[in-house]
Amino acid sequence: MTGQVGTWALGAGLIATVAATLLWLRLALHPGTPARAARLATGAGLLCAAVACGALEWALLRHDFGVRFVAENGSRRLGTYHTVTSLWSALDGSLLLWLLILTGYASLLGRLGQRHDQRLHQWAMTLVSVVSLFFFALSHFAANPFDPVHPVPSDGPGPNPLLQEHPAMGLHPPLLYAGYIGLVVPFAYALAGLLAGEPTRSWLRAARRWTLAAWACLTAGIALGAWWSYAVLGWGGYWAWDPVENASLLPWLTATAFLHSVLGRRASARSGWPVALACASFLLVLVGTFLTRSGLVASVHAFTESTLGPMLLGFLLLTAIGTVVLVCWRGTSDPYPPEATPPLSRATALLGNRILLTTITAVVLVGTVLPPVAQALSGTGTAVGPAYFNRTAVPLAIAVLALMGLAVLLPPSGTRPAETARRSVAPAAVGLAVVAVTGLASRPGPMVLAAFGCAGFTLAATAAALARRIRAGGTLRTARLRSALGGSVAHAGIALVAVGIAGSSAYTVATERELPIGQTLAVPGATVRLAAVDRVRTGSGMTVRARLTIAPSAGSPQTLTPELTYHPAQDTTVSVPAVRTGLLRDTYATLLAVSADGRSATIRLAANPMVSLIWAGGALTALGGLLALGTAPLTSRRRRRTAWPGRPLTSRGRHRTAWPGRPLTSRRRRRTAQPGRPTAGTARPVPASASTPGAAE
Amino acid sequence: MIRVRVPKTTALGVGLTGVGLAILLLGAVLGIWRSASPTGDGDPAHRLAAELRCPACQGESVADSRSPIAAAMREAISTRLGRGESPDEVRTYLVQRYGVEVLTMPPARRWGLLLWAVPVLALGAGLLPVLRAGYRSRRAARSASPGRPAGRDDRAGVRGGAAGDVAGQGRRAGSRRHRVFAPPSGSRVWNVGAVAVLALVGAVALATPGPQTPPGPATSPDPVPAQLALARSMEQQGQYEAAAEVYRTVLVERPADDVRLRLAFILIRLGQATEAARLAGEVLAHTPDAPDGLLILGLAQRESDPPAATATLRRFLTRAPDHPAAAEVRRLVDSG
């Protein structure tokens, strides 16, 4: 019964999204027709996705093993929380969550997006609807979780035991999906701008907020995923350059570059970069979906097949070809439009940021895609892992880190070398001092030192820049300052993450030994004593816990209890580490084995310094994105009058069109973006040396 | 707030700042130099194990993995390093023994070359236009008459004529084209769009294999397929021991050759070559020259009896030259 409702909802959703696509397309082609029907169809798609998700949740909670997904992933022994989260613990169910979020974005965009240019909005909605209908079709035909099972089993195996060990399971996948799928909006707007033939900048205004929201979610999702693997996998690592991790990083990199390409002088927003980066972000989302859902990279052995693989690949190719054709046909051809800025300006730093982030994306992409491609084309097995990425992506990332600090020191436009030099003294001193002190006190290696130094430089520069802004006047109520605050917070977060990664990779110490009860195990910075070994029969299986007391503890003794849990349904043993998080270092204990008589246990003990900085930095970065998102247009009217001409394209200007009674018509708006008209910095004389390429021709 | 107040006018202030920065720079250079020189501390075996990939797990290094294969590899690394072999020799040995997949940075040959070419090309593609633009602007500056100050007209000319050149004209042309583009051909675009949308749905529907076509080789109306699927998914998750247990259970229910071969294959992964060889032998007793049986027997024999292994693998190659594993096996046989 529940299964029928679910299948039916998927079918109805498919019909609704087909209708929505056609209706939005009709609107885009024949402007002026009322949009009500199209919005209703989009809303119906969301309703159907919600019903399908609800039906599967219901089946999971009711232990309706006649439904295929429940028979494969449900279990009577599972608690309610993990039963609910098992919706996204396997492919078919996670596709439903994907659909729910995608149609949610579509409905929200259908309602909120109208504030912007109508034609742009209609084209964007058409494209988002096409994506939704593809995933509905995929879920309905190829990966229907509601298929009936005969005979109905009495119990199921439950999800992968690793997914049952941590509460992050409830938060990490939805957040990651929200970020991942949200990148469809800038993609749709970029292509809509091309299709509608609108001035290039108007789509940027519409897309920036959506991208920021998606980016903040993606950042939080990636950080949570790293925290999860740190807290569950038991080897103390948080990032292994695994294909699935890389798949989430790739669109983050291009989305970050996209957000920065919107900043800066108008010319950079006018160039081909934003379109290319917005399209690349979503195409990389599709690449990641294909990689993780086709079974291509998950299997070491080539026998595995997945019915979804070819279809996802087909859709990816279709989208890529369509995008390239559209960009070639109607796009801006010049990625470097002439900018009347001197080489030593923020615009140059932003350009460097784009180039470096794109290069890192290329590095990670080729490292992720090469092994399966080489395997498929030539049959040779290759593996690409940390050794490669540490030698390529990491130095580039350190360069980006340094550029982050440099960008806030450089003036947005114009040359003021004396002032720039004066501003740079303090951050440079901080960076150099950090390198000198850590380099002389310990020997972490040049790469780690560079990361420390660049992070110190960037943190100091960011703090100084923010202080300058606050001194220059303005309270947190002004949108401009809040936008700057968002950027500063995000940059500080990234710098902290860099410090955490560099520090933990350089200074982690670990040891492992079989330990009789009562004896101690020590690494520099942490000493534990094995107090007892407990065997507990839990609901589903057997758990063995080692009780470790942390030795030099003043006051109340603290204990760590790493455990081994045996899951009879999968016949596997999962080791759950115990972590005591400290400000400076984590004490990380893993139980590897217990002797048969229960008198001794094999323990791995590690002191991981600065790991908490990574989580704090990740949270700060996501928070920075949200702060920049919250730059409300409320103060814009007052501030606009005093707006300076070369102002970067940030929040306030974007909302001009949203004001109903504003005298600024779209025609006038368009004229302000006309070429040939001096746009920015006209008050300042422009040195001839910094003039434009092409002048000699 | 960190802020060094530099006296704006005095040369003394600038000089002091310069000296301070120079001292810090010297300290930093010393720190980097000291940090870069090899320290000799740290366990070389651990360092080597950390940069090798465990062939039986996903995303774990040999140093971190708990799988039996990784333990064996760690053992081999310590004994060979202890015997005085260089890390490169140990690496070569492990590649021969476990395949090139254990390296997390493939050698820059054939496909591995792409790993270095793509980043360089990407960086070049990003930087080259910048350098060219800089060169062009410098040439333009030189060709401009030097005596005359850059007046307003001049600037406007540069900006209007060149600044807005490519992008501007493109966009103007674009918006003009857009006016011609949308309304007249609207119905045609709509027709094409509608057909394309329906074609997309149809393509997904048709590309889906029917529910009757079996996904795997073994399907019959009994609980065995479910167990096989379970074992297969465990295998994909890297839980080889658990998967082996399930296959053993299935084998009791249904002693079929394909199950035997799957089990044998996993046993090889787990390093239990003797039992794998026994299973493959059983298969070959039913169907002599079954390619998969030969393959697994050959792989299983590699440890105990290398010449026999080579002979078996050669037989496999003559039986099934187009097998998916044939290329790999050919490499193994050729390498010794």
TrEMBL record, chain A:
Function: Required for the biogenesis of c-type cytochromes. Possible subunit of a heme lyase.
Record localization: Cell inner membrane
UniProt similarity note: Belongs to the CcmF/CycK/Ccl1/NrfE/CcsA family.
Topology of this chain in the membrane: Multi-pass membrane protein
Region span, Disordered: 635-697
Pfam families linked to this entry: CcmF_C (PF16327), Cytochrom_C_asm (PF01578)
Organism: Plantactinospora mayteni
Domain Cytochrome c assembly protein: 88-294
Highest classification ranks of the organism: Bacteria, Bacillati, Actinomycetota, Actinomycetes, Micromonosporales
Top-rank taxon: Bacteria
Domain Cytochrome c-type biogenesis protein CcmF C-terminal: start-end pairs: 313-629
Name this polypeptide is given: Cytochrome c biogenesis protein CcmF
InterPro entries: CcmF_C, Cyt_c_assembly, Cyt_c_biogenesis, Cyt_c_biogenesis_CcmF
Keyword line: Cell inner membrane, Cell membrane, Cytochrome c-type biogenesis, Membrane, Transmembrane, Transmembrane helix
Membrane-spanning intervals of the chain: 6-25, 37-61, 95-112, 124-143, 177-197, 209-229, 249-265, 272-291, 311-329, 350-373, 393-412, 424-441, 447-467, 488-510, 613-632
TrEMBL record, chain B:
Key word Membrane present: yes
Domain of life of the organism encoding this protein: Bacteria
Chain segments annotated as transmembrane: 12-33, 113-135, 189-207
Keywords: Heme, Iron, Membrane, Metal-binding, Signal, Transmembrane, Transmembrane helix
Start and end residues of each stretch annotated as Disordered: 138-180
Ranges where the CcmH/CycL/Ccl2/NrfF N-terminal domain occurs: 45-144
Keyword Transmembrane helix on entry: yes
Family matches, as InterPro entries: C-type_cytochrome_biogenesis, CcmH/CycL/Ccl2/NrfF_N, CcmH/CycL/NrfF/Ccl2_sf, TPR-like_helical_dom_sf
Similarity-based family: Belongs to the CcmH/CycL/Ccl2/NrfF family.
The protein's role, per its UniProt record: Possible subunit of a heme lyase.
Name this protein carries in UniProt: Cytochrome c-type biogenesis protein
Species in which this protein is naturally found: Plantactinospora mayteni
Lineage: Bacteria, Bacillati, Actinomycetota, Actinomycetes, Micromonosporales
